[in-house]
Amino acid sequence: MTITTLETAAAQPQAAMELRAAGVSLGYPGRPVLTGLDLHVTPGEILVIFGHSGCGKSTLLRGLAGLLPVTGGQILADGTPVTGTSPDRAVVFQDDALLPWRCARSNVELPLAIRRVPRSQRRKQAAHWLAQVGLAGQEDRLPRELSGGMRQRVQLARTLAGQPRAVLMDEPFGSLDAQTRAAMQRLLIEVWRSTPTTVVFVTHDVDEALFVGDRVAVLRPGGIEAAVPVPHPRQAKAARAPETAAARARLLALLQGQDPAATASGNGAAGHQGLATLPASATDGGPRAAVTNNG
Ligand SMILES: Nc1ncnc2c1ncn2[C@@H]1O[C@H](COP(=O)(O)OP(=O)(O)OP(=O)(O)O)[C@@H](O)[C@H]1O
Ligand SMILES: [Mg+2]
Fold first, then answer.
1. Does residue 156 form part of some domain?
2. In a domain, 276, yes or no
3. Ligand 1 touching residue 31 (CB < 6 A)
4. Position 251 in a domain
5. Does any ligand 1 atom lie closer than 6 A to the CB of residue 53?
6. Residue whose CA is closest, atom 25 of ligand 1?
7. Which ligand is nearest to the CA of 170?
8. pLDDT at residue 268 is higher than 50
9. Domain count, the chain
């Protein structure tokens, strides 16, 4: 799949966003979900959030998006406290969040209108992004006329069209078949390589986490258990490498509340908790270094 650069993309230089959660508590009335969570997402990193159903992944993403106010601590975007939503921080929701009365094209045109892209260019760009997600010819369909996977792809097109500085993705490829999922992962990675963007990516799928991410943060009830560096980010051929197998085993153990690496080194839970706040550059050479190495 090839990404062609659109005129406006060249006209809008941008920097990827730094995101930080400092002692953050999030929840709903009478239902605290996360308490005292620390997380640092470095500019240009793809950080995966991995955890069991109900542990608070979507809640954390809503907090980072500014859709859910913190009940303690602070969420910072480039050092500034997040107090609401911003077009710079786009969300791909778990449940598709398309406007039901707008066709696929006009859903994708929305962030372009917010960015005041001239009307004549909006149509062209929306067609471009819909084609990138494999939906050429479906532009005039309403969301209810599309399958769940197609609606997820329209959401992805809408997000990428807005050229946000941070993309918060909540199981974005969950309802796609394996082949389409792999194509969408490649599309995301190509766009991420061509446009400085920070990505926070929620998934249940350990193999997806170890392919897409620079680091994988394991979320358990209450907070982050550990952030594990991905041995070979975005290298499909490394799926069977011994380091990848070891990282997979560690992530699955962490999900159960065990950490074989910490036990082996005599390092207790307090030891690996600190990893959550380590920038990727301290563990794996940094996301951009990984891109250079990989691609
Ligand atoms: N609007 C809400 N009001 C009250 N409680 C909520 C609300 N949304 C989520 N919760 C609760 O917060 C907890 C975390 O939910 P969240 O949606 O963040 O989980 P998740 O990790 O994204 O799960 P999944 O993998 O199933 O999507 C759950 O116990 C859930 O019941
Ligand atoms: Mg969720």
1. no
2. yes
3. yes
4. yes
5. yes
6. 53
7. 2
8. no
9. 1
